[in-house]
Amino acid sequence: MTTPTLDRRLFLAGLGASAITLASPALATVKPRVEVLKDPNCGCCGAWIDIMQSDGFEMEVQNATWETLSQYKTTKGVPEEMASCHTGLVEGYVIEGHVPPTDIRRLLAERPDAVGLSVPGMPFGSPGMGPESEREAYSVFLIRKDGTTEMFNHYEAA
Questions:
Q1: Residue 146 domain-assigned (yes or no)
Q2: What are phi and psi of 45, to 5 degrees?
Q3: Are 8 and 26 in contact (CB under 8 A)?
Q4: CATH number of the domain to which 48 belongs
Q5: Of the candidates 76, 155, 60, which has an alpha carbon nearest to the alpha carbon of residue 84?
Q6: How many Å apart are CA 106 and CA 123, to the nearest integer?
Q7: Residue 43 — very low, low, confident or very high, per pLDDT cuts 50/70/90?
Q8: 120-136 pLDDT, tens per residue?
Q9: Which range of residues forms the domain containing residue 109?
Q10: What is the domain count for the chain?
Q11: CA–CA distance from 100 to each of 1, 37, 117, 127 (Å)?
Q12: Quick check: helix, strand or coil at residue 142?
């Protein structure tokens, strides 16, 4: 009868596979962290933050004066015409305004060379701005590093 031997390569391969298997559930539960700067008196920002948390994002919120918030937008590369009421930062991307969580997840999956996403203004029915069932049409824009923008997604009126 032969006794099986364990060679070093086989042992290390098994050890590596075990580590990956054990780490996989932990990796699947990692929540993207969004740092948000907002006006302390803005209720719709709070509603958007709640929606993001419900969708599995970890939210870190800081209140700021409008002047500080405006300066922050400028330093992060948000063109004036793309501005909204709050600004987030997730994995190096700016999230300006009431951007839906699904669009943020797409941004993080595709990783374009860009500043980030914006829903300019505060369109009714965007996340945090009233019921989606009564929304007005709005677009989500990708802000390029050169300041240009292009449509990333569009939502028809409900």
A1: yes
A2: -65, -45
A3: no
A4: 3.40.30
A5: 76
A6: 21
A7: confident
A8: 999 999 999 999 999 99
A9: 31-155
A10: 1
A11: 65, 17, 10, 6
A12: strand
Residue type (1 letter), 137: A
Residue 15 lies inside a defined structural domain of this protein: no
Evaluate whether residue 22 is within a structural domain: no
Indicate yes or no: pTM above 0.90: no
The pLDDT confidence band at residue 42, using thresholds 50, 70 and 90, is confident
Place of tokens 């590596």: 16
Residue with structure tokens 């939210």?
A: 59
Q: How far apart are CA 111 and CA 49, in angstroms?
A: 22
Write out the two tokens for 4. Answer: 């099986």
